[in-house]
Amino acid sequence: MSKITKRLKEEYIGLCGNRANLLGTVLILGGIGFYFSWGKDKLFEDYTNVVSGAICQGVGLIQQLCTDFGAETKEQYNRAKDNIESYGKLDEAYFRKVLSHEYYCGRQGLYLATKEKGYTKEFRKAKKKYVTSKFSIPNF
Is the distance from CB of 68 to CB of 105 less than 8 angstroms? Predict the structure, then answer.
């Protein structure tokens, strides 16, 4: 795989693999859509579009900042993939560490790596075993 392809895949993992980050991106792009919903000639005649666009973009930016722009997802994805490739299987200690200490972004990176390598069932079992929180965002 070329360096460019690998880099694009990593960015895709951070942007679309992390659904919380994807929400921020959609809100930012949706905010831009509000600005142009009435055409250039009527942009500032109706200030509700400008205000709505600014609110959407502000909330989207906050969402992006909260998810660190998908950096934790990309980091855990790369670590988990390397771990699977090194051991030829999933390391139970690594599962325990990530699933018991990481939040959604890190868990999502682990899930995406296990999904790519064909270990989805093992991920689900380990998640039930190590995630003690009653509230957990589903990984998909």
Answer: yes
